[in-house]
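Recap quiz, item 2
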Amino acid sequence: MVKEMIVIENLVHKYRTPQSGEFAALKGVSLQIAKGEFVVVIGHNGSGKSTLAKHLNALLLPHSGRVLVNGIDTREKERMWEIRQQVGMVFQNPDNQLIATTVEEDVAFGPENLGIPPVEIRRRVDEAMNSVGMSQYKTKAPHLLSGGQKQRVAIAGIVAMRPQVLVLDEPTAMLDPVGRAEVMETVFRLNREEGLTVVHITHFMEEAAHAHRVIVMEEGQIVMEGSPREIFAQVDRLKELRLDVPAMTELSATLRKEGVKISPDILTVEEMVVALCP
Amino acid sequence: MSITLHEVYHTYQPNTPFEYHALKNISLEIKEGEFVGIIGHTGSGKSTLVQHFNGLLKATQGRVLIDGVDISGKEVKLKEIRQKVGLVFQYPEHQLFEETVAADIAFGPKNLGLSPDKIVKRVKKAMAMVKLDYERYKDSSPFVLSGGEKRRVAIAGVLAMEPKYLVLDEPTAGLDPKGRDEILAQIADLHREAGLTVVLVSHSMDDVARLASRLIVMHQGEVVYNNHPRQVFSENNRLKNIGLDIPTVTKLMIALKEKGWPVRTDILTIEEAKGEILKAVKGGKPHA
Amino acid sequence: MLKDITIGQYIPGNSAIHQLDPRTKIITLVLYMVGLFLVNNVTGYAVVTGFTLAVILLSGISLKIILKGLKPLLFIIVLTLGLHLFMTSGEIIWQWGFLKITSQGLRQGIFMALRLIFLVTITSLLTLTTTPIALTDGIEKVLKALFIPAAHELAMMMTIALRFIPTLIEETEKIMKAQMARGADFDTGGLLARAKSLIPLLVPLFLSSFRRADELAMAMEARCYRGGENRTRLKQLLMGTRDYFAFGITGLFLAITIVTRYMV
């Protein structure tokens, strides 16, 4: 049974800027995301990917079209908090989303807002810190943590609200490679082990390699959609969009042009070695 | 003419419980005309290191010489050192403050006490160097520009000091692939065409490997490598122990070599990798 | 360095003072202040000194840390002492030119300086022994009990301020260095020049603070924050025997100070 967790139909969103007047950030986007799916949305700054993300938990509302979360229309004002509990969101800047002066108090912030009894909050906070591997830091002040650790705390803060969907709006953009790996590992584990539906927004191609589905956005529209292999195999199209192509995929494309018979959808060094040394 | 560090140590909050040795016995030289990459994790000391190049931080011990002048000397004017060694910080767009792009870029030259027409000349030149059209951008507010444009304005602000050495701390952080490629291409131009000595601090091996002619690898406050990228990356295992990654193509060539292929392992780009693989395929690769 | 500033620094511990409910600490602090302003003679000050020292000992905070906290106030303390010393009229005990010290002035000066020292000491003891969260929680509860509106909002503001002070200090240092790399000079020149030199520091700092505030607000909303109503807390405040005991002792202290003022 496949249940659609999120349904986006013909979504249009416009911004008004003082310089250039009205500007459509989303020009009719349609998308369905199934329960338990791991979807990566890739695109440049200004492609509309963050605007799309903010529609998933009613931080922004459609100007036309609609967004359904678990069957609830995000425009239903009285169910806004229900939607936000179900769709948790992690943002780009790790410094600007932690509220409390210790890790555990910050993780507790969401459940506190939901009015959950203290004993239950305690349980959820401990579980959530454990699930992102931050238990030993529970009484630390956020500003003493590394970028990757801060983002894991932010994820724990969402997990403690027991959401169905985790939306990550460029959570790795400001991190170093170690921090990025920490965050991605955490997110993949939550998807695999807890069955959390994940919508991950990024401009790092390599983070898409293990997703179920990749969506490429450009100028407010979805321009490519498919499995990571299907997407990466289109090397020329990706280059035209000036997106990164995984090095091995690019190498396999150039080797094919030279007449070497290997598959066009190679993603990793291991796959390349197997392809070259059968 | 060079930036020379001689047995430099730097300790934060010495003689307190928070004492932290950020740099330990660093000796290195950056010669005029070079393009040097500095690589290391967050906390490896690379940001602390580059702040010694223009005297923003003082060595706890050891000497820093800019073109032969010890910058800890009493008669040394730090402003002159900072003019000579331009330092672009991480997320430099966060330092913009003027109402117009031109005024912001003029901040540095103004601090140097230059005449108004000289300042305008420098602003124009700096904007051309980062490929921002002077007439189009000079009067616009820096705050309405895109992320990539803002960053270029900030870099122009340092270039307007007309430094001889340009040090950039993670200039691509937070940019998308398009913005990243543009900035890196411009930095390469600054080195090749404008003849600037460039020091690029980064945690992206792929970026640095393509551009730098020398690589300094920092780990826990020490220089662990100081060599050509090809030499550095050929020591795969030691880099792995530090937790730094080598470029993906280098990784492939090492894996192929282990399978008995007659390929070179000091490969940095896809083009080079293609050439080596084709040579091996045509020459009849051995089947292990 | 800016990093040396310690605002609301908390020193972990398990002392009797640490374990008091934050509400108890806030209310007894107010009672203590009343006592401190009531005393006006040697006996009174002796009582206050004894009580203050006892509280410090109980807290397990070393005297060194407390003295360090007084250091920034040294100037004001000396000024207070000096003003009273030289400006009070009365029986002259020492004179040098137009400077004269009276016995009343000496007494008054010492009293005022002590009052200031004790005030700062006990207040800093509150922050030294109470986590910022417990402190804001306590303030929120006390304000609510006094029917002061926006108690929750005030407490939330305090929490956010405490959370962001280190971040903003770090940011200030970074912007300062970035501008210095462009030849800015923050240390020399007259008052006006120095004030002007702060613009390149303050403008970016404010801009980034606004950006932070904006992003933080969105993150809070996304985590279902909608004010203090129906909000629960991870940690509940509970008063125990220890707290009642603290109230009793402070009450006694207050009573004694009243006695010293009006009856001795």
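Chain B has a mean pLDDT of 91.
The interface with chain C takes residues 13, 51, 54, 56, 79, 82-83, 86-89, 92, 94-97, 107-108, 111-112, 143, 157-158, 161 of chain B (CB under 8 Å).
End of item.
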